[in-house]
Here is the input.
Amino acid sequence: MTPIHAYIAGTGAYVPPRIVTNQDLIDAGIDTTDAWIRSRTGIEARRFAADGEGPSDMAVPAVRDAVESAGLQIEDIDFIIFATLSPEHAFPGSGCYLQAKLGLPGIPALDVRNQCSGFLYALGCARGLVSSGMARNVVVVGAEKHSAAMDFSTEGRAISCLFGDGAGAVVVRGSEDPRRGIRSLRLGADGRFADALAQKVWDTRNSPFIPTDADGRGIVEKDMLWARMDGKRVFRSAVETMIGSVVSTCRENEIEVAELDLLVCHQANLRINEYVRDQLGMPPEKVPSNIEKYANTTAATIPILLAELERDGRLKPGMNVALVAFGSGFTWGCAFAVW
Ligand code: UT7
Here is the structure.
Protein backbone atom coordinates (compact mmCIF):
# COMPACT_ATOMS: atom_id res chain seq x y z
CA MET A 1 0.00 0.00 0.00
CA THR A 2 1.30 3.51 -0.84
CA PRO A 3 2.13 5.39 2.38
CA ILE A 4 -0.14 8.32 3.28
CA HIS A 5 1.71 11.52 4.11
CA ALA A 6 -0.17 13.81 6.49
CA TYR A 7 0.03 17.50 5.63
CA ILE A 8 -1.54 20.76 6.73
CA ALA A 9 -3.96 21.61 3.93
CA GLY A 10 -5.52 24.77 5.35
CA THR A 11 -5.18 27.29 8.18
CA GLY A 12 -7.68 29.57 9.89
CA ALA A 13 -8.00 31.98 12.80
CA TYR A 14 -10.46 34.03 14.77
CA VAL A 15 -9.77 36.62 17.44
CA PRO A 16 -12.57 38.49 19.20
CA PRO A 17 -12.88 42.16 18.22
CA ARG A 18 -12.41 43.66 21.72
CA ILE A 19 -8.83 44.96 22.01
CA VAL A 20 -7.49 45.35 25.56
CA THR A 21 -4.26 47.34 25.80
CA ASN A 22 -1.78 47.33 28.66
CA GLN A 23 -3.15 50.76 29.59
CA ASP A 24 -6.66 49.25 29.78
CA LEU A 25 -5.38 46.79 32.42
CA ILE A 26 -3.85 49.66 34.38
CA ASP A 27 -7.13 51.61 34.09
CA ALA A 28 -8.96 48.53 35.42
CA GLY A 29 -6.91 48.86 38.63
CA ILE A 30 -3.90 46.55 38.19
CA ASP A 31 -0.68 48.00 39.61
CA THR A 32 1.51 47.50 36.54
CA THR A 33 3.04 49.58 33.76
CA ASP A 34 3.05 49.38 30.00
CA ALA A 35 6.86 49.45 30.17
CA TRP A 36 7.00 46.43 32.55
CA ILE A 37 4.73 44.31 30.37
CA ARG A 38 6.41 45.30 27.10
CA SER A 39 9.96 44.91 28.32
CA ARG A 40 9.41 41.54 30.05
CA THR A 41 7.06 39.95 27.51
CA GLY A 42 6.72 42.04 24.32
CA ILE A 43 2.94 42.21 24.83
CA GLU A 44 1.18 45.46 23.84
CA ALA A 45 -2.43 44.28 23.68
CA ARG A 46 -4.65 41.20 23.76
CA ARG A 47 -8.20 40.34 22.69
CA PHE A 48 -10.95 39.48 25.16
CA ALA A 49 -14.05 37.54 24.15
CA ALA A 50 -17.55 38.78 24.98
CA ASP A 51 -19.61 37.53 27.91
CA GLY A 52 -21.38 34.38 26.80
CA GLU A 53 -18.74 33.62 24.12
CA GLY A 54 -16.78 30.43 24.82
CA PRO A 55 -13.85 28.63 23.20
CA SER A 56 -16.11 26.49 21.02
CA ASP A 57 -17.83 29.67 19.73
CA MET A 58 -14.48 31.20 18.76
CA ALA A 59 -13.46 27.89 17.19
CA VAL A 60 -16.37 27.98 14.70
CA PRO A 61 -15.09 30.87 12.51
CA ALA A 62 -11.49 29.62 12.85
CA VAL A 63 -12.51 26.17 11.59
CA ARG A 64 -14.63 27.61 8.77
CA ASP A 65 -11.65 29.73 7.70
CA ALA A 66 -9.30 26.69 7.76
CA VAL A 67 -11.75 24.46 5.86
CA GLU A 68 -12.25 27.13 3.19
CA SER A 69 -8.50 27.65 2.82
CA ALA A 70 -8.12 23.86 2.36
CA GLY A 71 -10.65 24.05 -0.49
CA LEU A 72 -13.08 21.78 1.38
CA GLN A 73 -16.64 21.93 2.68
CA ILE A 74 -17.49 21.59 6.38
CA GLU A 75 -19.17 18.24 5.55
CA ASP A 76 -15.78 16.88 4.42
CA ILE A 77 -14.45 17.00 8.01
CA ASP A 78 -14.50 13.54 9.56
CA PHE A 79 -12.66 14.11 12.87
CA ILE A 80 -12.38 17.02 15.34
CA ILE A 81 -9.49 17.45 17.76
CA PHE A 82 -9.91 20.37 20.16
CA ALA A 83 -6.93 21.56 22.20
CA THR A 84 -7.80 23.85 25.12
CA LEU A 85 -7.05 24.46 28.78
CA SER A 86 -10.15 26.63 29.15
CA PRO A 87 -13.04 24.37 28.06
CA GLU A 88 -16.52 25.76 28.71
CA HIS A 89 -17.20 23.14 31.39
CA ALA A 90 -15.54 20.39 33.42
CA PHE A 91 -17.21 17.99 31.00
CA PRO A 92 -18.08 17.27 28.25
CA GLY A 93 -15.22 18.60 26.19
CA SER A 94 -15.35 21.66 23.95
CA GLY A 95 -14.92 19.39 20.90
CA CYS A 96 -18.48 18.08 21.35
CA TYR A 97 -19.90 21.61 21.55
CA LEU A 98 -17.93 22.58 18.46
CA GLN A 99 -19.16 19.52 16.57
CA ALA A 100 -22.80 20.48 17.29
CA LYS A 101 -22.17 24.12 16.28
CA LEU A 102 -20.61 22.99 12.99
CA GLY A 103 -23.60 20.72 12.33
CA LEU A 104 -21.55 17.51 12.06
CA PRO A 105 -23.39 14.96 14.25
CA GLY A 106 -21.74 11.55 14.41
CA ILE A 107 -18.10 12.41 13.71
CA PRO A 108 -15.59 11.84 16.55
CA ALA A 109 -14.71 14.82 18.77
CA LEU A 110 -11.60 14.54 20.93
CA ASP A 111 -10.37 17.07 23.51
CA VAL A 112 -6.64 17.42 24.16
CA ARG A 113 -5.59 18.92 27.52
CA ASN A 114 -1.94 19.78 27.03
CA GLN A 115 -1.99 23.53 27.56
CA CYS A 116 0.63 25.50 25.59
CA SER A 117 1.75 22.44 23.67
CA GLY A 118 -1.85 21.26 23.18
CA PHE A 119 -1.86 22.23 19.51
CA LEU A 120 1.23 20.14 18.76
CA TYR A 121 -0.08 17.17 20.77
CA ALA A 122 -3.33 17.45 18.79
CA LEU A 123 -1.41 17.75 15.52
CA GLY A 124 0.45 14.55 16.43
CA CYS A 125 -2.87 12.75 16.95
CA ALA A 126 -4.19 14.08 13.63
CA ARG A 127 -1.06 12.97 11.80
CA GLY A 128 -1.42 9.46 13.22
CA LEU A 129 -5.12 9.27 12.33
CA VAL A 130 -4.54 10.40 8.75
CA SER A 131 -1.46 8.34 8.01
CA SER A 132 -3.09 5.20 9.45
CA GLY A 133 -6.16 5.76 7.25
CA MET A 134 -8.50 6.17 10.26
CA ALA A 135 -9.52 9.66 9.15
CA ARG A 136 -9.28 11.68 5.93
CA ASN A 137 -9.82 15.31 6.89
CA VAL A 138 -9.06 16.11 10.51
CA VAL A 139 -9.68 19.56 11.90
CA VAL A 140 -7.25 20.50 14.68
CA VAL A 141 -8.33 23.54 16.64
CA GLY A 142 -6.74 25.40 19.53
CA ALA A 143 -9.07 27.85 21.28
CA GLU A 144 -8.93 29.59 24.64
CA LYS A 145 -10.98 31.96 26.72
CA HIS A 146 -8.53 33.04 29.39
CA SER A 147 -10.20 36.33 30.22
CA ALA A 148 -12.92 34.58 32.25
CA ALA A 149 -10.43 32.83 34.54
CA MET A 150 -7.86 35.44 35.52
CA ASP A 151 -7.45 37.45 38.71
CA PHE A 152 -7.58 41.11 37.63
CA SER A 153 -6.45 42.38 41.04
CA THR A 154 -2.78 43.36 41.47
CA GLU A 155 -2.23 40.01 43.19
CA GLY A 156 -2.93 38.24 39.88
CA ARG A 157 -0.89 40.55 37.64
CA ALA A 158 1.89 38.04 36.96
CA ILE A 159 -0.69 35.97 35.04
CA SER A 160 -3.44 38.37 33.98
CA CYS A 161 -1.08 40.61 31.97
CA LEU A 162 0.13 37.68 29.88
CA PHE A 163 -2.91 35.96 28.39
CA GLY A 164 -5.57 36.65 25.77
CA ASP A 165 -8.47 34.93 24.01
CA GLY A 166 -8.64 33.51 20.49
CA ALA A 167 -8.84 30.47 18.23
CA GLY A 168 -6.75 28.97 15.45
CA ALA A 169 -7.33 25.87 13.34
CA VAL A 170 -5.75 23.72 10.66
CA VAL A 171 -7.04 20.92 8.46
CA VAL A 172 -4.80 17.84 8.28
CA ARG A 173 -5.20 15.67 5.18
CA GLY A 174 -3.35 12.80 3.58
CA SER A 175 -1.44 12.71 0.32
CA GLU A 176 0.54 10.08 -1.56
CA ASP A 177 2.95 12.85 -2.63
CA PRO A 178 6.02 12.51 -0.38
CA ARG A 179 7.34 15.99 -1.21
CA ARG A 180 5.15 17.79 1.32
CA GLY A 181 3.87 16.95 4.75
CA ILE A 182 4.59 16.70 8.46
CA ARG A 183 7.87 14.82 8.34
CA SER A 184 8.39 14.44 12.08
CA LEU A 185 6.75 15.35 15.34
CA ARG A 186 8.42 14.94 18.73
CA LEU A 187 6.45 15.30 21.95
CA GLY A 188 7.62 15.29 25.55
CA ALA A 189 6.57 15.89 29.14
CA ASP A 190 8.12 16.15 32.60
CA GLY A 191 5.46 15.77 35.26
CA ARG A 192 7.92 16.53 38.05
CA PHE A 193 7.14 20.17 37.24
CA ALA A 194 3.36 19.77 37.05
CA ASP A 195 2.85 22.36 39.81
CA ALA A 196 5.10 25.03 38.26
CA LEU A 197 2.15 26.30 36.21
CA ALA A 198 -1.24 25.04 37.29
CA GLN A 199 -4.82 25.99 38.04
CA LYS A 200 -6.33 23.71 40.68
CA VAL A 201 -9.83 25.03 40.85
CA TRP A 202 -11.09 21.70 42.19
CA ASP A 203 -9.42 18.66 43.73
CA THR A 204 -11.06 15.24 43.29
CA ARG A 205 -8.68 13.72 45.86
CA ASN A 206 -11.01 15.31 48.41
CA SER A 207 -14.71 14.80 48.81
CA PRO A 208 -16.48 16.97 47.89
CA PHE A 209 -14.05 18.10 45.23
CA ILE A 210 -14.87 21.75 46.04
CA PRO A 211 -15.42 22.51 49.76
CA THR A 212 -19.01 23.47 50.57
CA ASP A 213 -20.57 25.74 53.19
CA ALA A 214 -23.41 24.78 55.54
CA ASP A 215 -25.94 25.40 52.73
CA GLY A 216 -24.07 23.11 50.33
CA ARG A 217 -22.69 25.95 48.21
CA GLY A 218 -19.21 25.47 46.81
CA ILE A 219 -16.47 27.68 48.25
CA VAL A 220 -13.27 28.07 46.27
CA GLU A 221 -10.42 29.75 48.11
CA LYS A 222 -8.38 32.29 46.14
CA ASP A 223 -5.29 30.07 45.93
CA MET A 224 -7.45 27.39 44.28
CA LEU A 225 -9.44 29.72 42.06
CA TRP A 226 -6.61 31.28 40.05
CA ALA A 227 -3.69 29.88 38.09
CA ARG A 228 -0.27 30.10 39.70
CA MET A 229 3.07 30.12 37.89
CA ASP A 230 6.72 29.92 38.83
CA GLY A 231 7.56 32.24 35.94
CA LYS A 232 11.35 32.06 36.15
CA ARG A 233 11.36 28.24 36.27
CA VAL A 234 9.01 28.07 33.26
CA PHE A 235 11.09 30.64 31.36
CA ARG A 236 14.36 28.73 31.89
CA SER A 237 12.91 25.35 31.01
CA ALA A 238 11.09 26.76 27.98
CA VAL A 239 14.27 28.20 26.50
CA GLU A 240 16.36 25.07 27.09
CA THR A 241 13.72 22.64 25.88
CA MET A 242 12.69 24.61 22.81
CA ILE A 243 16.29 24.99 21.64
CA GLY A 244 17.00 21.27 22.27
CA SER A 245 13.81 20.20 20.49
CA VAL A 246 14.53 22.24 17.36
CA VAL A 247 18.13 20.98 17.16
CA SER A 248 17.04 17.33 17.62
CA THR A 249 14.24 17.73 15.07
CA CYS A 250 16.64 19.15 12.46
CA ARG A 251 19.10 16.33 13.15
CA GLU A 252 16.34 13.74 12.80
CA ASN A 253 15.41 15.24 9.41
CA GLU A 254 19.03 15.54 8.32
CA ILE A 255 18.88 19.29 7.80
CA GLU A 256 20.82 22.18 9.32
CA VAL A 257 18.96 24.76 11.44
CA ALA A 258 20.01 27.27 8.75
CA GLU A 259 17.91 25.33 6.23
CA LEU A 260 14.70 26.14 8.14
CA ASP A 261 12.72 28.84 6.33
CA LEU A 262 10.45 29.50 9.31
CA LEU A 263 10.46 28.64 13.01
CA VAL A 264 6.95 29.15 14.36
CA CYS A 265 7.18 29.31 18.15
CA HIS A 266 4.44 29.20 20.74
CA GLN A 267 3.80 32.83 21.71
CA ALA A 268 4.27 32.88 25.51
CA ASN A 269 6.92 35.56 25.76
CA LEU A 270 8.75 37.48 23.05
CA ARG A 271 11.94 37.33 25.16
CA ILE A 272 11.82 33.50 25.26
CA ASN A 273 11.48 33.37 21.47
CA GLU A 274 14.21 35.97 20.88
CA TYR A 275 16.54 34.00 23.10
CA VAL A 276 15.72 30.73 21.29
CA ARG A 277 16.19 32.47 17.93
CA ASP A 278 19.57 33.99 18.89
CA GLN A 279 20.89 30.74 20.35
CA LEU A 280 19.90 28.92 17.14
CA GLY A 281 21.56 31.67 15.08
CA MET A 282 18.38 32.45 13.12
CA PRO A 283 17.55 35.88 11.67
CA PRO A 284 14.43 37.70 13.03
CA GLU A 285 12.45 37.34 9.78
CA LYS A 286 12.55 33.53 10.11
CA VAL A 287 11.10 33.57 13.65
CA PRO A 288 7.88 35.60 13.38
CA SER A 289 5.75 36.75 16.29
CA ASN A 290 2.31 38.18 16.95
CA ILE A 291 2.34 38.15 20.76
CA GLU A 292 2.43 41.98 20.60
CA LYS A 293 -1.21 41.96 19.42
CA TYR A 294 -2.73 38.88 21.02
CA ALA A 295 -0.62 37.99 24.11
CA ASN A 296 -0.48 34.30 25.00
CA THR A 297 -3.51 32.41 23.67
CA THR A 298 -2.03 29.06 24.79
CA ALA A 299 -3.20 26.26 22.44
CA ALA A 300 -4.25 28.84 19.84
CA THR A 301 -0.97 30.73 19.36
CA ILE A 302 0.64 28.50 16.71
CA PRO A 303 -2.42 28.02 14.46
CA ILE A 304 -3.31 31.75 14.66
CA LEU A 305 0.23 32.64 13.63
CA LEU A 306 0.26 30.03 10.85
CA ALA A 307 -2.95 31.51 9.42
CA GLU A 308 -1.48 35.04 9.52
CA LEU A 309 1.75 33.92 7.87
CA GLU A 310 -0.10 32.08 5.14
CA ARG A 311 -2.46 35.01 4.46
CA ASP A 312 0.31 37.60 4.19
CA GLY A 313 2.52 35.38 2.00
CA ARG A 314 5.33 34.71 4.47
CA LEU A 315 4.41 30.99 4.58
CA LYS A 316 4.59 29.39 1.13
CA PRO A 317 4.45 25.89 -0.35
CA GLY A 318 7.79 24.08 -0.33
CA MET A 319 9.12 25.88 2.76
CA ASN A 320 10.89 24.02 5.58
CA VAL A 321 8.86 24.91 8.66
CA ALA A 322 9.41 23.94 12.30
CA LEU A 323 6.74 24.43 14.97
CA VAL A 324 7.76 24.40 18.63
CA ALA A 325 5.96 24.84 21.96
CA PHE A 326 6.57 24.47 25.68
CA GLY A 327 4.28 24.94 28.66
CA SER A 328 2.39 23.70 31.70
CA GLY A 329 2.88 20.07 32.60
CA PHE A 330 5.71 20.56 31.70
CA THR A 331 4.83 19.48 28.19
CA TRP A 332 6.44 20.33 24.88
CA GLY A 333 6.46 19.48 21.21
CA CYS A 334 8.28 20.17 17.98
CA ALA A 335 7.11 19.39 14.45
CA PHE A 336 8.91 19.66 11.14
CA ALA A 337 6.95 20.04 7.93
CA VAL A 338 7.63 20.73 4.30
CA TRP A 339 4.73 23.11 3.56
O1 UT7 B 1 2.62 29.68 27.92
C1 UT7 B 1 2.78 29.28 29.25
C2 UT7 B 1 4.18 29.28 29.61
N1 UT7 B 1 4.50 30.47 30.31
C3 UT7 B 1 5.64 31.08 30.07
O2 UT7 B 1 6.37 30.69 29.20
C4 UT7 B 1 6.00 32.26 30.96
C5 UT7 B 1 7.45 32.18 31.33
N2 UT7 B 1 7.85 33.21 32.28
C6 UT7 B 1 7.89 34.52 31.95
O3 UT7 B 1 7.57 34.87 30.83
C7 UT7 B 1 8.39 35.49 32.98
O4 UT7 B 1 8.88 34.82 34.11
C8 UT7 B 1 7.28 36.51 33.43
C9 UT7 B 1 7.02 37.49 32.30
C10 UT7 B 1 6.02 35.76 33.78
C11 UT7 B 1 7.73 37.29 34.66
O5 UT7 B 1 8.96 37.94 34.42
P1 UT7 B 1 10.12 37.86 35.50
O6 UT7 B 1 11.20 38.72 35.02
O7 UT7 B 1 10.44 36.42 35.72
O8 UT7 B 1 9.46 38.51 36.75
P2 UT7 B 1 9.23 37.91 38.20
O9 UT7 B 1 8.11 36.93 38.19
O10 UT7 B 1 10.53 37.45 38.79
O11 UT7 B 1 8.79 39.17 38.97
C12 UT7 B 1 9.68 40.28 39.12
C13 UT7 B 1 8.92 41.40 39.80
C14 UT7 B 1 8.20 40.95 41.05
O12 UT7 B 1 8.29 42.01 41.99
P3 UT7 B 1 9.40 41.94 43.19
O13 UT7 B 1 9.10 40.67 43.93
O14 UT7 B 1 10.72 41.90 42.48
O15 UT7 B 1 9.16 43.19 43.93
C15 UT7 B 1 6.76 40.83 40.60
O16 UT7 B 1 5.85 41.05 41.66
O17 UT7 B 1 7.91 41.89 38.91
C16 UT7 B 1 6.67 41.92 39.59
N3 UT7 B 1 5.61 41.71 38.62
C17 UT7 B 1 5.03 42.72 37.96
N4 UT7 B 1 5.22 44.04 38.01
C18 UT7 B 1 4.48 44.81 37.21
C19 UT7 B 1 5.06 40.54 38.21
N5 UT7 B 1 4.11 40.78 37.27
C20 UT7 B 1 4.07 42.11 37.11
C21 UT7 B 1 3.32 42.99 36.31
N6 UT7 B 1 3.56 44.31 36.39
N7 UT7 B 1 2.40 42.52 35.46
